[in-house]
Amino acid sequence: MSIFKHIPDGYRLRCNRYNAKGKNKCTHKINVPLPGNAFKIAHDPLDSVQTNGLATAFSWNKMRFSKDTVSIVAYLSVMHSIPAPQIADIMNQLFNLTISHDTVTRWSHKIALNLHNNLGPLSVNASNQSHLFVDETRFAVRGNKRWLWAGKDSRFDSIQTWFISPRRATNYARSTFNIAFSHSPSLKSAHVVTDGLHSYPSALGDLGYNIDEKHIRNVGFEGHTSNSINNNRIERLWSDFKTAAAAFRGFKSELGLFCFVTSRTYRHNYFTPNSRLNGKTPAQAAGKKLPYCHNTLKLLLKFL
Q1: For residues 115 and 162, is the Cβ–Cβ distance under 8 A?
Q2: Is 254 within 8 Å of 66 (Cβ atoms)?
Q3: Residue 145 phi, psi (nearest 5)
Q4: What domains, with CATH codes, occur in the chain?
Q5: Side by side, which strands form the sheet with 2-7?
Q6: pLDDT value, residue 53
Q7: Longest dimension (CA), the chain
């Protein structure tokens, strides 16, 4: 084998028989980390952003506003993805409370980070028919491109992984898969469905995944692929995210994008009934034990 390409944290070797004819042709590739190093692989979605020292816990005894006020802001932010200026206006018009939109933004960030720390990614069990649908889409942060990677489980319709990166590359795809496999090890035996991006099989190979038998790669539009299974399940998730993000007209920071995605993820996994699961949330269908509450707002407050 010889060096075919340099990647951010190593280099890629390709078989010298890559251009051979007939049965002698070999397309095998392998990634090798730089000498003395190992591949940097994220185990948590939070590894993709910097929190900049933001304290995630609410100091209720030192706050000017009551917990009831914060709970309403949390509900509007998480369940309805309303931007901070509109939430501040709602609180002023309905409750005669003057709250700056910067304060609402800080609360929204803390709320998302609290949900992530207290709930964590949903752990699921896979079956022989399970699929992990993985794809990436683009968002704008101060006019710059940022890529959101996400994976969705077919059995419980749950979002299993998400990660934010400045570009599309193997190392970010590797982290995306590793987050899903770390929290739900059974998914490593499930079929992974992706589009034609070359980073996906490369990243899966680095994690010891059985690419030849388990990876389903769809290239082109539906109907132009030999596989009957496509990743439309994860493509439809982008519609939900993009529609909710339209009101923000782009994000001012990577932390803001991460907290938006995190809030939508936990809303989907833990708080929103799913028609595919007969009205259960993915967490309920997966057997996750949560406190009993009469409504979503009270359940949401349990994790702040």
Answers
A1: no
A2: no
A3: -75, 135
A4: 2-33 (no CATH), 40-304 (3.30.420.10)
A5: 2-7, 10-14, 29-33
A6: 66
A7: 77
Alpha-carbon distance of 68 to 72, in angstroms, equals 6
Tens digit of pLDDT at every position of the chain (304 positions): 888 888 878 888 888 888 888 888 887 788 888 887 888 899 999 999 987 766 677 888 888 898 899 999 999 999 999 999 999 999 999 999 999 999 999 999 999 999 999 999 999 998 878 899 999 999 999 999 999 999 999 999 999 999 999 999 999 999 999 999 999 999 999 999 999 898 999 999 999 899 988 999 887 655 444 456 778 888 889 999 999 999 998 999 999 999 999 999 999 999 999 999 999 999 999 999 989 888 898 999 888 8
Tokens of 160: 């299993």
What sign for the dihedral angle of Cα 31, 32, 34, 37? positive
Residue 196 main-chain phi, psi, to 5 deg:
-85, 10
SS3 readout for the chain: CEEEEEECCEEEEECCCCCCCHHHCCCCEEEEECCCCCCCCCCCHHHHCCCCCCCCCCCHHHCCCCHHHHHHHHHHHHHHCCCHHHHHHHHHHHHCCCCCHHHHHHHHHHHHHHHHHHCCCCCCCCCCCCEEEEEEEEEEECCEEEEEEEEEECCCCCEEEEEEECCCCHHHHHHHHHHHHHHCHHHHHCEEEECCCCHHHHHHHHCCCCHHHHEEECCCCCCCCCCCCCCHHHHHHHHHHHHHHHHHCCECCHHHHHHHHHHHHHHHHHHCCEHHHCCECHHHHCCCCCCCCCCHHHHHHCCC
Say which residue the tokens 């251009």 belong to: 19
Identify the residue whose tokens are 């769809």: 218
Residue with tokens 């339209």: 246
